[in-house]
């Protein structure tokens, strides 16, 4: 016979805390439970004990010590590992979160703290009407990037409270499923008369009509007037090590916000993490295009990406054009936008989209025809000791993905002096339109590092054709690829914007526009030029972009940003296996680059297209990657968790599998397989 006291020993006491806002109502409850009680039964038992009539459907148990949610309600306490010492908090899964958008505006909205970050970002993007949520993620600002602000705050009064756009009443923020028709390709676009761009269906996601238009304008319109003082207070990276700090705080997409220490009302940054902007369409992507433009604009202003003085003035001119056009448009009443203007913008988009290797399989017939070639006289520049350069003209022939050069045209039938295979090389533009300098710097991988070769072209057309061929060859593509001609046109378009000094007719300064040139360039150039000089130079550059619409100015800005050599590179400080010093690893959409930390020079490049497999040794936190031709590398990450780099690589591989299907569904399971790892 078993006594009642012995039988009672199978039950044990569990302390539960209820997270509610009712005053005078108990928050802690002690329940007698058994190990075979399932989580759902425990929830039911607790709710009966609380005796409060309310909707508990969004509540779940958070295990404080283990930092995990108990979401599988059919699991027993024994299976979950819950024992008497466990501290379980019964709390809501959806909580308020503050997000700093790329345009530096803060929104406050209700987000799932129990879903994986990948799913949470998808829900956030539906609320904000941003398609292709897989390109974005959430970033915690690292302590290093906040130090400058804290020092400034000590010597100044607390600034006025920032305006926060409250979106907590949106349907998706309350945990409701998003409207499946939001991204429908057959949806009729609604054009915003102020911006000259379609406003999509953003307005339908806000509560009342009057505030809806204001909210939409904050998300879909740019507000470029930023004072130099504000800019000076923001974190500006001065070195590669500083740039590495910017990428240290990416959240793990395979874990929830709560599991990563994010609390209710915390502030995170919503940013485009992956620089592959797929299927941009101005009819539906007014908010998305504006946020990409804003992320690019702030990257330029804060010098997170390097550009030349000539390029900085182009970016300033495009910002000024946006500013001028918006002022002129707002002074008029426009009820609709011309369809032809949208067609022009869509044509510009064909040059804009960045496609990964294997991402596009159109025009197969074009790839099996005779591959075209280039043949021309170019100058070869070889760096020599004592800072001298040997410049000599040769006959160059570009065929497939290789460049061969000969003494002259007549000797082209024989053996070349040298044949350069450009597959996997780095292509860096070296252009100064005003000085008639059109150079191409090639960093070609060899056994012991990178071999530098400089090519000098005679004019813009020649440069555009050869530069486009080099860019494609570096990705393993030939000039038969359908992207060759658009690449040539993109380069020519960018050169044309730089070519303001060739114009004899100077642009007249708009009298009705109060231009503050310091708002359009980085602090380095504000110090270099006086305000009047800067205004004059920006207006000079403005000549070639003065006829652009608002949307076209944004798209051209994004296109120019994509043309910069450092575009799309995220930096991390790493230690390669067998090395005695730290290096910088640049992660891009199609390659990894090992960079010398002291000089900033590329040492080696590895293409994702040549990658066979990658994995992580979680015990020693080491990433190991195998490439073709028995090439393998291994490194540990010093500036961030190695999981971040692992997720970056897997994420870019995942994005290369996307296609333009109508329902735009994502294979979430595949994403987690490629990025999650096995810890």
UniProtKB/TrEMBL annotation:
One Pfam match: FERM_M
SUPFAM superfamilies linked to this entry: PH domain-like (SSF50729), Second domain of FERM (SSF47031)
Residue stretches making up the PH domain: 379-475
GO cellular component, one term: cell projection
Key words of the record: Cell adhesion, Cell junction, Cell projection
InterPro entries attached to this UniProt entry: Band_41_domain (IPR019749), FERM/acyl-CoA-bd_prot_sf (IPR014352), FERM_2 (IPR035963), FERM_central (IPR019748), FERM_CS (IPR019747), Kindlin/fermitin (IPR037843), Kindlin_2_N (IPR040790), PH-like_dom_sf (IPR011993)
Gene3D superfamilies xrefs: 1.20.80.10, Phosphatidylinositol 3-kinase Catalytic Subunit, Chain A, domain 1, Pleckstrin-homology domain (PH domain)/Phosphotyrosine-binding domain (PTB)
UniProt subcellular location: Cell junction; Cell projection
SMART domains linked: B41 (SM00295), PH (SM00233)
A GO biological-process term: cell-matrix adhesion
GO MF entries: integrin binding
Protein family (similarity comment): Belongs to the kindlin family.
Protein known as: FERM1 protein
Name of the encoding gene: Fermt1
